[in-house]
């Protein structure tokens, strides 16, 4: 699987998938073998291939492990898991703690750099599954190569004559094994350089640093009867004939910062097989999407859009893209990467929008992607139960994203209309339209095809070259970003350095204790570089710590560390790959590695945080009871002074709902229930009714936290021992943070009480001002508000101009131009009704008549205009109103005879008058 992302510049080639044929009925022309493939009546399904692979390697002594999450744990530098080996990188370096030396997995992967190719080429996906077998310093090439061959030829039944292999330029050892042990003729063993046959690709010359090695790939040959290509001058195998189906990496080097490849202490194996492409090869399908796995997706889209698959090339690409993207979306969200504006969330949002756009272009009406969550569940839920478990949340998040994107789409169309309104007609491409179309596409998610279409409807031609240039610049930026993302797989974090130096992982004892004696095992300076002693700012790592490291929404502990006469204030604590990093400032003396030390957590802050943490669980359970099962946690922050809980729900909570939630939580507080924490297997936890939130792995050990039967969650945080310790709970605010997600802030214990104190003070202050007892503050205030309203109305009436006087004024202002009475009146104190009445009467008595009234008030300007039929065509009233509001801000509407509007900025009244006069002059009615 090295090649798909490793050569971003490669131009993907079609492989005959355009050949028209009824889907799933005829043999595709590009593949020589007749369907059903390789002798079986029915090609193996994706599920069968996955199971056969894992069993094959189990039978050869491998431990079957679950897929890692798509969101890499303990590796903030990496956006998504992109290969099966990611979760084992420490094992390759000989530093991991796994008890196995042979492992096999089916890994969920997401490769964002492939996004643009999805649907266009036969083999690209964003989300895909990688089958893998790994050896950590155990077996090597001699066992690995024949096993892969056996798997493909015997287990899957791919004819031996339909496979060829590649090896790294100077890897004679692998060449010999393929030739002598497997029996391949030399012309079927190709040698390529570091671009094709090293992993990561081109690592020797370009990096990244870290574990790497030469690789050997296995290719399916679609036309084995044709002569083999000559080896000379070939840089890679032509991909209209050969499809890579497996990559064996011999991970035996560590690339050092100076570029040297140092042999690792152990030699490893990292094999990766793209499951979807193997399924396609076995099914004789010309592209990965035309296999059993994807059939229900394409059928669903075909039905919903009313367009059959394989009728129109462009539509087929859209259907494949939606299929790919909806899988990616559901898997990302189920692993906790929810749509947002940054990082992972941005990628998820971008994928979603691309799919939604494809839906519009296919003519699908309304939001539809969320309805496909069940298609993903049906296709993949047996192998990955998380997609079924989180289906409700996926549906809700995807739906609200789809709905807000529909608004983006509308806004894009409006932006374009405004851009075009300022343009004059030209021959050929419209200057600047390429950049504008790109900005619409990139920043506002507005598709260029639609831009092109709308422009064509208005008689404009899109500047395609300008658009392409802007796109290319963007691609360059994306490639640079993607490349640095790959590098990050092996970025040397502080934790990696500590591990390399043999520092043991930190033991956390803070569930039971808040003070502990231990030893300083490592110190890092402010830049996180290891040092022997520390003054000022830096980080300390100790053998055993009571300090909780930030995680699961709970903030890290603060407190003090003392060593002899030296003393440091700990500001917070974070965890990196098993090491607790205490961020601190040494206030007195010096800290030195090896010193005995006393660690004391700030007890007041910790206890307050614990109250909030347990209350967060109770809040979550109460929200589910009050609002429904669709409520799911979308994020949280648990600090000493407050708790913040983000959850999936569409509407603002009513006052009764908030009161209900508070009552439920406070009832549990008053019942003084013991809080029970227990570490157990994920399977046992599920049996006991504990619900996994995001990304937990099956087979993992998890910590469960129960408050009686009221709340059951998986949680690694610290909590009160008894719900009574929470003291009291109250909601402070409820607000929307995005469509479909809300945020509640709440407080417990002393904070909740001081809030009540504050409110009591405010109330008594009000009572004093109103000279009423606190119980009557509301009625007294209401009476006051009503009185003010009435007085304002009376005042306006008293100040309103007299209509008869106004009529006189307007008549005096009206001058005769070209036989028409034209009047422009600027006068304070008129509302729209009065202004229109005035103009109506004038129109009747002075026809042919044309009049405009502008009435400035403190924060707005009333605008009205009227024109009798003789002049309405020359100077339509609605245009006069818009001429004025164009200057004033705001807007207006109406007909040629009668129109009104409202301006926002009274200070620009002179400009508005000028604009109206100009419009009148243009109509030959200037006064
Ligand atoms: N790491 C290699 C790849 O991703 C083999 O698993 O292709």
Short description:
The chain is of the alpha+beta class and 927 residues long.
For the record, give the distance between the C-alpha atoms at the N and C termini, rounded to a whole number.
78 Å
How many helices in DSSP terms? 28
Bound molecules: serine
Radius of gyration: 35 Å
Question: What features would you describe in this structure?
Answer:
The longest helix is centred in the middle third of the chain and has 31 residues, at 391-421. With 927 residues, the protein is α+β, with helices and mostly antiparallel strands. A hairpin with a 4-residue loop joins β19 (633-638) and β20 (643-648). α4 (141-155) crosses α5, α11 crosses α14 (391-421) and α27 packs antiparallel against α28. The termini are far apart. 39% of the residues lie in helices and 24% in strands. The site of serine has 12 residues, from β8 and β9. Serine binds next to β8 and β9.
